[in-house]
């Protein structure tokens, strides 16, 4: 039976992964030539314990229920002792690492911290020493590409190269990608998902105290009357691939249901086209108009295209 451990349980992507596990009893994971039901789920949270926990979540060592997520408190990705205690106690067969410093600006200000979180080599060492086999999922990013590809051309996985053109964030993620791809482990099956800019609804499980995701910020900027008279400046010359969060989670579990004999698999995951933030805003308004035409018609705030300091055209 599969035992799934999600590291960084309060992160945006992790919350949707955990929600899917709680809601879908039919999830299966391929392992050892057979399909296994998910029998247990847990996540790590870096903070001290808080309450109340969301429905379906319990502190570890509590009385077990039908399908719950066990929570391991105060487990930081850089605290190897806490990680090891968690892993030894839960005995996972699938580890999904959602922990990251994903803000390029924060990474730029503190490269050492970005390296310690985004390149968790100590975690891999712990997993390699286990006497049972682990499927390890790591989320990378499209920031590993320089963003200078000709318009209309997509990036292939092998196109990522360490260079001075990469941000600190992109460089840390790429170095760890390369580290994972170089592994020759008898006990570790690695799946690396290089994901585009993830968009979607508000995080469903834990309250989000971090900066709002772009779509939530955009919605507030467009629909809040307090800002109606001010022009909304959005970049028109940086183009990104956007990936819907539920599509990402669906692809993740479809890949986990496939038996892969390779020691490491790397996959680009992006949207169907590259869009600027101006284009994304207009697409969002068009979709909102199909559900609430009067609310969209009442918007008076002007969207003003503005230039980004560095041109990037990224499409996975």
UniProtKB/TrEMBL annotation:
Residues 4-270 form the NAD-dependent epimerase/dehydratase domain. It comes from the Eukaryota. PANTHER family: NAD(P)-BINDING ROSSMANN-FOLD SUPERFAMILY PROTEIN (PTHR43242). This is NAD-dependent epimerase/dehydratase domain-containing protein. It comes from Phytophthora fragariae.
